[in-house]
């Protein structure tokens, strides 16, 4: 067998072993968190040496800076990312799917006779496909929640005006509104029934759904619980504010639609053109891989593509 393929197989094996190790670490951490919560409910929670050591390590992770610290914090928030997307798979099952799609991407690259240098690219594309699906699922869920928030706040305000308590208002939203907002408000209602303060339950929901309008709602409820006031009127004003923001956001999207389409065309044109030329005349394209100048051009092209995508994203992404 060609030594190049042996090196590639060894690299893939090491990468997959790293992925499995990270998945097992996350799973063991989730199990230890469940055990600590159960001990807290039963009243048998006492800090052991292992818990103290874990707390020291966690503090060290939180204080880490730079690229390493960013990666550590990303993996530390990975279970929360899966929860936000409502992924039907467990973390270890999801990583198995990523491994399978990565192997499939490499196999497809070999079948269509891509250059050996593009086989790792195919594997990387296959590995990133489940992550892209999970990110799109999470983004879609956040958008649905954002679109339902104004109606939920208005419904809760009417419930408060009719004499219901805040807990009853949460239950009304959970019963009358569709998912995902009904699921989140139901979790808040259940946490409150278990004895958790409503302020903390709302903050937990804000941690699961990082939304600016939801943050206004949580802050308003916390202030009202401490200082008093007409919460129904505050919720009505927040609901009107959310609806006005949606109107402005729709106008911004209409005005920046041309820029978004231009960005998609400019980003997709080079890969599509490369694939077409490779299909028609492979020898002409292989110059980019066989010569040092061609490899430098590929690297520069990829860097400029990423830079252009970031620039277009900054231009069309207008905060409202």
Description:
- The chain has 320 residues and is mainly α.
- Among the domains are: 142-254, Type II secretion system (T2SS), domain F (Receptor-associated Protein); 256-320.
- 85% of the residues lie in helices and 0% in strands.
- It has 14 helices and no strands.
- It has helices spanning 3-42, 49-63, 66-76, 78-85, 91-111, 119-161, 166-176, 181-193, 198-208, 212-227, 231-255, 257-280, 282-290, 292-316.
- α6 runs antiparallel to α11 (231-255).
- 14% of the residues are buried.
Brief sketch in words of this structure:
With 320 residues, this protein is mostly helical.
Question: Which SSEs are present, and which pair or pack?
Answer:
Elements lengths: L2 H40 L6 H15 L2 H11 L1 H8 L5 H21 L7 H43 L4 H11 L4 H13 L4 H11 L3 H16 L3 H25 L1 H24 L1 H9 L1 H25 L4
Helix pairs in contact: 1-5, 4-6, 5-6, 6-7, 6-11, 7-8, 8-9, 9-10, 10-11, 12-13, 12-14, 13-14
Descriptors:
320 residues; mainly alpha; Receptor-associated Protein; 85% helix
Number of strands: 0
Strand content: under 5%
**Biggest β-sheet: count, sense, barrel?**
none
Q: Which descriptor suits the 3D outline? A: elongated
- The CATH architecture assignment of the domain at 142-254 turns out to be Up-down Bundle
Overall average residue pLDDT: 77
Helix share, percent: over 70%
For the terminal residues, how far apart are their CA atoms? 57 Å
